Amino acid sequence: MKETQIDLRVWRQFVAVAEELHFGRAAQRLHLTQPPVTQAIAQLEKTLGIVLFDRTRRRVALTPAGEALLPDVRDLLDRAQALPARARAAAAGEVGRVRLAFVSTIGFERLPAWVREFRRLCPQVALELVEATGDVQLEALARGEIDAGLMLHSPGFAPPALERLAVAQEPLVLALSAQHPLAGDDTLSLADVLAEPLVIFPRRIVPSLHDAVFGLYHAAGRMPTIAQEAIQMQTIVNLVWGGIGVAWVPASVMQFRREGVVYRAAEAFAPTGRRKASAALPACETSLVWPADTANPALARFIRFVRDAGSETI
């Protein structure tokens, strides 16, 4: 049977009569005369095919069906009254959903702090998080499965055709097993390190950063010996712990405190030739990226939040 749409005004009249249990007083409360209210309730009962009120000359009472219906109608009217404010909040980005993908390195410290503060400021925005590498994020953005992503890349090599906001820049550091013969040296020879087997992420994950690491070897006249590829930074560090090889990882990975793994920054490498500065190791950058044609007010609010939080150098 086809359901009939019932005007909210009729439901308001139903609630008024149910609460007053008197058609005259209900009409006064609604600033109406009694006949239109009586007719509206009679038509409502006819439409529903049930009796909502028992009527006598002396009293009006809700039937069991009317009593059962009353809480739902009150809830309906409350939600209808709240709709204009909710619509304005949605347009302002105070209500909605943001589907955000992120790389593991931003998730060690910065992202949890952002999520905690953003949810405090915008409790009605559902911030849905999914960890994903850069290549997976690009595919998900193209399919409309996520709204934005936090991606890792070499400085100045953010994915094209996307809006972006740089949120962090950090150097690469060397990760090596605490049992490695070089681990106890206060000063390292870059040439010695480049001769070691390398654990690295596949090029498709972060092409620009992969090329930067290879560029470090090429500048020294070497080709890296790839011992193992792994996707997640935690896995790379675990493989280093297992003695599979050394790895170049973002400095933020040092917050992943894996016992038996040590890290060495640029300052640990002996200068070469006449250079007095420490070794020039590649750097990496993390950017928040999103489609230029996005029309999600909640995403716009999140972008403003991240921009206001400020980008920092780790």
Written description of the protein model:
This protein has 3 domains: 8-91, Orthogonal Bundle (Arc Repressor Mutant, subunit A), CATH 1.10.10; 96-153 and 286-313, Periplasmic binding protein-like II (D-Maltodextrin-Binding Protein, domain 2, 3-Layer(aba) Sandwich); 169-284, Periplasmic binding protein-like II (D-Maltodextrin-Binding Protein, domain 2, 3-Layer(aba) Sandwich). The protein has helices spanning 8-20, 23-29, 34-48, 64-91, 110-121, 134-143, 190-194, 207-219, 233-241, 297-309, and strands spanning 53-55, 60-62, 96-102, 125-131, 148-153, 163-177, 198-200, 226-229, 247-250, 261-264, 283-290, 312-313. The termini are far apart. A hairpin with a 4-residue loop joins strand 1 and strand 2. The radius of gyration is 32 Å and the shape is rod-shaped. Mean pLDDT is 89; it is low at 273-278. The chain has 10 helices and 12 strands. The protein is α/β, with parallel strands linked by helices and 314 residues long. Strands 3, 4, 5, 6, 9, 10, 11 and 12 form an 8-stranded mixed sheet that branches. A two-stranded antiparallel ribbon has the order 1-2. It has a two-stranded parallel sheet with strand order 7-8.
Briefly summarize what is shown:
With 314 residues, the chain is an alpha/beta fold.
- Counting DSSP H or I runs of 4 or more residues, the number of helices is 10
Order of secondary-structure elements: HHHEEHEHEHEEHEHEHEEEHE
Poorly predicted runs? 273-278
Might you state the CATH topology name of the largest domain? D-Maltodextrin-Binding Protein, domain 2
Indicate how many domains the architecture comprises. Answer: 3
Task: Please tell me the overall pLDDT.
Answer: 89
- The CATH class of the largest domain, by name, is Alpha Beta
Percent range of helical residues? 25-40%
Q: Report how far apart the termini are.
A: 65 Å
- Determine the CATH superfamily of the largest domain: Periplasmic binding protein-like II
What does the largest sheet look like? 8 strands, mixed
